[in-house]
Amino acid sequence: MRSVLSGGFADFEVVIVDDGSATPVQEGLAAAGLLADDRIRLVRQPPAGISAARNTALQVARGRYVTVLDSDDELAHDGLSRIHEQFDRTGARWIYTDYEELTAAGSRVIHLPSFDSPRRMLWSVLSRPRLPFKHSGMSMERDLLAGIGGYDEGTPIKVDVELVLRALANGVHLVHLAHPVVRFHRHDTNISRQRLAGLRVWNRLIRTYSPTRVPGPALGIMLVRSASELGKALVTAVGR
Questions:
Q1: Terminal CA-to-CA distance of the chain, rounded, Å?
Q2: 3-state DSSP: the chain helix, strand, coil percent, rounded to 5?
Q3: d(CA 76, CA 82)
Q4: HSE-up of 199 (CA within 13 Å, CB side)?
Q5: From CA 173, how far away is CA 165, in angstroms rounded?
Q6: pTM for this entry
Q7: In this structure, which long-range contacts are made by residues 55-61, counting pairs with CB atoms below 8 Å and at least 24 apart in sequence?
Q8: Per-residue confidence of the chain (240 residues) as pLDDT tens digits?
Q9: What element of type H or E holds 140?
Q10: Which of 1, 7, 114, 233 could, after both became Cys, cross-link 176 (CB 3.0–4.6 A)?
Q11: Are 198 and 157 in contact (CB under 8 A)?
Q12: CA distances (Å), origin 228, targets 27, 172, 188, 235
């Protein structure tokens, strides 16, 4: 929150959804002196999962655009300014950005690819070992996100992947902003590193969103994805 509030762009609101945490988020924010800013809006609800929490935020948000900032992430000082400029310059309705990855060994900027069509990006999401987007820092028109159904509350993990695939399948063109908007702290407890648990979800997503109904290519994508996730799990297990 401090990274957002200290940025160089002032026309925003921060919507926080407390999804039934044992210690109310309001207590921690109040102790840190972060509730005095009237741009901060806090909603508390019974525990319902990450997708339901994000959909609640989507319902109460008032701006034209929404920007996602996941846990473990900080917003760059010029993040919102860069996003705002990209919307104005390109007329885009959905933007994804580069990001800075921080580990115990240091940091590096992850440069993501650009795509000239939703179909090309959809193929890339399904088949690339590293996802060609970062959910955190992703920005979209609020009405567009709501119009495609928001976040799928029936998907337990890989929620961001399902959302992006659904948007691409509906012909939404995701525009790349070649600037690191967020700083991502990677560690062994990141939810995204639950590789094995995600294989079942990946299988469903590939069957649902594969651009071809021919069994061979879809099976090939699934084999590549399985090898990729298992390989990443092995690297994590040996501490590399």
A1: 31
A2: 40, 20, 40
A3: 10
A4: 14
A5: 11
A6: 0.88
A7: 55/150, 55/151, 55/153, 56/17, 57/15, 57/16, 57/17, 58/142, 58/145, 58/146, 58/150, 58/151, 60/15, 61/13, 61/15, 61/142
A8: 899 999 989 999 999 999 999 888 899 889 988 888 889 999 999 999 999 999 999 999 999 999 999 878 999 999 999 999 999 999 999 999 999 999 989 999 999 999 999 999 999 999 888 899 999 999 999 999 999 999 999 998 999 999 999 999 999 999 999 999 999 988 765 555 566 667 888 888 998 998 766 556 666 676 766 666 666 555 555 554
A9: strand 139-141
A10: 114
A11: yes
A12: 42, 27, 18, 11
Question: Phi/psi class of residue 137: alpha, beta or left (left: φ > 0; alpha: ψ in -120 to 50)?
Answer: left
- Give the SS3 label for residue 96: strand
Exposure letters 127-150 (e unless 16+ CB within 10 A, then b): beeebbbbbbbbbbbbeebeeeeb
Host H or E run for residue 89: helix 79-90
Per DSSP, 108 falls in state: E
**Minimal CA–CA distance to 66: which of 44, 36, 98, 41?**
41
Are 95 and 83 in contact, with CB atoms under 8 Å apart?
yes
Reduced to 3 states (helix: H, G, I; strand: E, B; else coil), residue 7 is coil
Cα atoms in the Cβ-side hemisphere of radius 13 Å centred on 127: 13
- Sign of the four-CA dihedral 166, 167, 170, 175: negative
The secondary structure element, H or E, covering residue 225 is helix 215-237
Give CA separation, 136 vs 68, 98, 105, 206, in Å.
5, 10, 22, 22
